[in-house]
Amino acid sequence: MTNHPVDASRRDLIAAAVIVAAAAGDVRGAQAQTPSNLRFSNPPGMPKPAGYSQLVEVSGPHRTIYLSGQNGIDTNGNVAEDFRAQAVQVMENIKTALASVGGGFQHVVKLTGYLTNIEANGAEFRDVRASYFPNKAALPASTVLQIPRFANPTYLVEVDVIAVIPRL
Asked: Cβ(144)–Cβ(115) under 8 Å?
């Protein structure tokens, strides 16, 4: 686990996504047609956000899944009350999204966690995260960062993941 500035981590992820999209086809601006090997979705059982997709699937010899940051919010828009409950809801949202494309936590290759207070909640976050990754010999690369706050100040944790899933 390493700690990097949020801007650098997100910048690297965005740069990688742009490279993948550019390699997939001709990108001619915002109105370009979606390449055939990209699928953008908001899986059933998850909140439907405005302005971004919950999940982006990249097909190739495998499928690469980029999952948007998940907060402790359920499908009814309710935010879990405390840190542990939010962390569990985050992981359940990730589980739901991965299952929607035939995957699971065993396919996660990168996990980035954002916490508003690492000192108070870091150990609890690691405990919850570990409970979803039972194979200790195949843990994903992981980064945990402290940030000042989220867009919704009631959120205490956010996690985004990248998963690689075999072709169907």
From this structure: yes
pLDDT tens string 25-51: 444 444 557 778 778 888 999 888 777
For the chain, the structural domain boundaries read 6-166
Q: Which residues of 129-158 are buried (b: 16+ CB within 10 A; e: fewer)?
A: beebbeeeeeebebebbeeeeeeeeebbbb
Question: CA 3 to CA 38: how far, in whole Å?
Answer: 30
In the numeric block, the tokens 């740069």 are attached to 15
The CATH number for 6-166, chosen from 3.30.750.24, 1.10.3720.10, 3.30.1330.40, 3.40.30.10, is: 3.30.1330.40
Taking only the tens place, the pLDDT of each residue in 137-153 is: 788 989 999 999 999 99
